[in-house]
Amino acid sequence: MFGNKIQSVWIEQSEIPNYYQHPICHICKRRMMVKRSKSLSPEPSSSSESKRPKIVEDGQTNGRMAHPNMLDLSDDVLLNIMKYLNPQDLMSLSSCCQRLDQVTQDRTLWANVDFRSRSMLLHELEKYVKFLQPLTTSLAIRGNQDPEKFTGLSQSFFNAIKVVCNQLKELIIEDYCIDGNKIQITDFPTMIEKLSLKGSMMCHLQSNKSYFFKIDVHMPNLTCLILSNCQWFTPHSLLVISKIPKLKELRLDSCHRLGECVAYASLATRFGFKTLEILDLRDTALGDSEICCFSSTKTLTHLYLECPPILRNAESAEQQQQQQQQQQERLQRQAAQRPVFEDRNLVQFLVEDEFLWENFERCLISDRAICALGSYVCDRRVQNSIEDVVVIEEDRRIFNNPHLRTLVVRHYPRVTNHSLVHLALNASSLEYLDVTGTAVTKDGVQMFKSQKTNVKVVSSFDET
Description:
alpha/beta
């Protein structure tokens, strides 16, 4: 009586109430199943177009297999799936059909774009420019350092980024080659706040001018600059970078050309780096004089220092054993001859300066640089002068690096317990300290921990 308006459904035996468990009801059930089997057709009926077919648990329907189709999912579900895919997979998915091509170009999928899952050549990179959106805020790419396959970035790529991504805040370019004659720092997007050139190569650089010339004017909003493993970076660029008005994070780790540069470091820290908070100088050849210059940076909160492996292993094993033996002998003699005194319940271990300078050809970081961090500067001015009497105002102590929270000093043999004593007394904001591979002793570390209970200390004496 209901005709074709009856909608076919599966009725399991367990779902039928007890009062329907009757022979007549079983006959009706068989008739409904026959009608349902006759109504199956390749084309969907008009009454069932708006509803999705129900998939049977056993996966079979009268001898036919029911396979779910990805296109049966809604756009919202597809977007939730696609947000876990990398841009390369999204581009491959867009080539399947027109609907997937439309979904993959949704602006929410291209807000933060990271192509670093695999290296990309220039001709591949240009294919992805069409997917970038005006709301793209982060773009990361990685090249190939193989000389046979290495391809530099082009001017057209930077022009496309500046035109399409007008709200770009973060640009990460790793392991690419940049031609200094074709691409200047002024060709980069001007609105970015984070720039990374990690592992990039530079060719045809001008010898009389830094590559970062006028970066402070071109990128006034830049807060983070990462130049890790940039072998082309030279010390004179420090002075140019220090002029960036909002720079908070500077990473120069593994820049092996960054060595003795007291003049540039002194000028840069005296007149620039007014907002610098994070400074990474690991795996560089900087010494005491350069690090002491950064002690005047009042805003510094994180400082990372680590001796390069090539300098760390420069001495032979025999020389190292001799130095360790000499150090133990000197410590024993001084313990017997000099009194060990306490300052605020922290034992001070005295180390002779002349021993620290033996057998070292290159000036590495020592206690002198560490003790400059957190120290104070006396500022006493002449108020009046009457004949032979000079009136000087009271001593005003200005502490350096008052906000220093993280300090990493690794594998420097000249850093001793004297640095621990100084940091315990003067680094009031310190929260994390790493002195792995230095000449500090286990007793010195324990005494530091007892004095600074709120500081997490990492050393060579930690139990593994």
